[in-house]
Amino acid sequence: MERRRKKLGEILIAQGLITEEQLLYALQEHKRTGVTIGAILVKLGYINDDELSSVLGKQIHLDQRKRIGEVLVDQGLISENQLQLGLEEQHRNGMQLGKCLVKLGFITEVKLVDVLSAQLDIQHVMLESFNFNPQLVRLIPKEMATKYRVIPLFEQDGTITVAMADPTNLRTVDHLKFKTGKDIEPVIAAEKSILAAIEKQFSQDQIDMTSVLNSLQVSDELDIVSTEETAADKGADEEGAQVIKLVNVLINQAIQEGASDIHIEPLEQYVRLRYRIDGDLVEKSPIPLQLRAQITSRMKIMAGMDIAEKRKPQDGRFQVRFQGREIDLRVSSYPVMTRKRGVNEKIVMRILDASTKQLSLDQLGFLSKTKEVFNDLIRHPDGIVLVTGPTGSGKSSTLYAALQIIYDISKNIVTMEDPVELHLDGICQGQIMPRAGFTFAEGMRSILRQDPDVIMIGEMRDSETCEMAIQAALTGHLVFSTLHTNDSPSAFTRLLDMGVEPYLITSSVIGVLAQRLVRRICPKCREPYTPDPEIVARTGLRPGIQLFRGKGCKACNNSGYKGRLGLYELLTPDETISKMVLQHQPSDAIKAHALKRGDFDSLRRDGLRKVIEGQTTIEQVLGATQND
Ligand SMILES: [Zn+2]
Asked: Any residues with CB less than 8 A from the CB of 123 and at least 6 apart, and which?
């Protein structure tokens, strides 16, 4: 008993909850009265009940336990007969016995938790007045917390104390450990209180949302320029006005944070809101479930979609004016099945913000050597320049930058894009519209009759477009386009696979730029460090080299990264490569030759140069590029 008392006192002192003098005084009182230390401390007003129960909860661990049914009968809380009925119910629905007894009305939940708590020697926590730490609560997502009936209470020395409805469920404890990366100390609380606490804690987000709503003068920031909303807006009631405002706030916030996409996802318990920022999805305050239908309808109206149609995917678009610039939003709906509410639509809005695309080659991350060669290529009178990489690797930003560089009143530049992501002054940009019969192949035929000098083709998706593009290049036009390949040498093999004659490829392709986007280290919290020697060895960097990383700060949301950076691999074919293409040699062989040539930086090498310069981290480059 003495040992336990001492320990409790020490913990309280360590946590700064009481002072040494207070403990000594309490010990005296304890000796005098025989009342427990904890109770004395509470009585003297040194700590409150919650603090005490929290600390107690941490000390106590799962012990050998008697079967709960027996205990309840022993204590005279239920009869043998009721136990039998409870066991039968358990057999039928597979729930825990305790729950079945509550369901049958033989015992109250609070009483059950009390007994369990005593039986398991686990602290019983009353959550009603507990002062939750919102950050800690969010370590476990709402869905998971609800599913497992758990809510984190506090953290100390790498251990999180979690209130659980069933602290004996070791599998849940393991899941929580895995999810949080911390040790878990369970305490018990009534299931109802946990669910209520989860609801309350997570609904504070919604309160936040409302306060954002009220504090923002949306009309000054955001103007809906083109939508087909007029009819539906007429007679909008107060609630309707709130929804309109809320949607405007969402869009406004996303644009302000530099997001490329807004995701609105109907989940079982709430509507998840996420923004894609610098390539990663970031969760935002959820949208109240009761507003889901209205928000979805509002967005569909703005995008000119059929609001009555909820079972088929749709797409649409609209435009907003934000801080004096016009921004296009492409909206797509996708019906998803929820367990409780049937089919709901997930909405994704792509934000096509011209100001984020209008970057120079330097800003995109071109090293001066690559920039020099690329600048040369895009000034050729004819030929094809290809930009390759997966979706979202920034290919169109590069092409837009190139078009802006070469724009000249004496040239006719025509584009064919799907979609037009940025409006360039002075350049005629075509928008692909397959439903109207405007496909890449169809467009290509027309462009050639438009007396072009430079043609930009958003993507070479089919062999027909490829062949026409090559013909155009061979007849005195400069053509820019993109392909989906992993590296620059593969562009040649991809064209061969598409059935293009090898001699047409070698006589038209003058350069291939492969690219990736990685995250830039946050300039506000960048710090040097010495990386793991094993990683350094793997990349061939000098042993003991100092590299950089972001420590994490307010400016970067503690991620250590801010903004993005391109990695580039520019390959200009030489005679050997032409020969290799004519012989249908694999891309590996072409790459090996280029690397030997000396003037070719692979994506990995380009990335490592940027790692050494402190622009990005070694992890980003290793993640985005392959070994050479
Ligand atoms: Zn930072």
From this structure: 53, 54, 56, 57, 60, 117, 187, 188
Determine the distance separating the centroid of ligand 1 and the alpha carbon of 562, expressed in angstroms.
7
DSSP state of 434: G
As a whole number of angstroms, the longest Cα–Cα distance in the chain is: 104
Q: Each residue of 323-381: pLDDT tens digit? A: 888 888 999 999 998 887 788 999 999 998 877 667 889 999 999 999 999 999 999 99
Number of Cα atoms under 13 Å in the Cβ half of residue 409: 0
Direct distance between the N- and C-terminal alpha carbons of the chain, in angstroms, rounded to an integer = 66
Alpha helices in 181-237 (DSSP H): 191-215, 218-221, 230-233
Q: Torsions phi, psi of 343, nearest 5? A: -80, 125
CA neighbor of 580 nearest in space, from 558, 596, 557: 596
Q: Interhelix angle for 292-302 vs 238-256, to 10°?
A: 70
Q: What is the DSSP letter of 435?
A: G
- The strands making up 383-388's β-sheet, listed across from edge to edge, are 428-431, 413-417, 454-457, 478-483, 383-388, 509-521, 561-571
CB neighbours (10 Å) of residue 59?
13
How far, in Å, from the CA of 280 to the mean position of ligand 1? 16
CB atoms within 10 A of CB 558: 13
Determine the distance separating the centroid of ligand 1 and the alpha carbon of 314, expressed in angstroms.
Answer: 39
Instruction: Write the pLDDT tens digit of every residue in 494-525.
Output: 999 999 999 999 999 999 999 999 999 999 99
CA dist 423 and 420 (Å) reads 7
Residue 6 in this model has a pLDDT that exceeds 70: no
pLDDT-wise least confident of 129-143, 223-237, 418-432: 223-237
382 or 75: whose pLDDT is higher?
382
615 in Cβ contact with 532 (< 8 Å): no
Specify the 3-state DSSP secondary structure of 227: coil
pLDDT at residue 546 in the model? 94
Residue 402 CA: distances (Å) to CA of 367, 444, 454, 456, 461: 15, 20, 11, 10, 21
C-alpha of residue 278 to centroid of ligand 1, in Å: 14
What pLDDT, on the 0 to 100 scale, is given for residue 64?
Answer: 33
| Tokens linked to 425 | 């002054």
Say how far apart CA 442 and CA 416 lie, in whole Å: 10
Distance 547 CA to ligand 1 centre (A): 16
The answer to whether 151 and 194 have CB atoms below 8 angstroms apart is yes
Give the Å distance between the CA of 561 and the centre of ligand 1. 6
Rounded to the nearest angstrom, the distance between the alpha carbon of 447 and the centre of ligand 1 is 47
Instruction: Give me the pLDDT at residue 210, please.
Output: 54
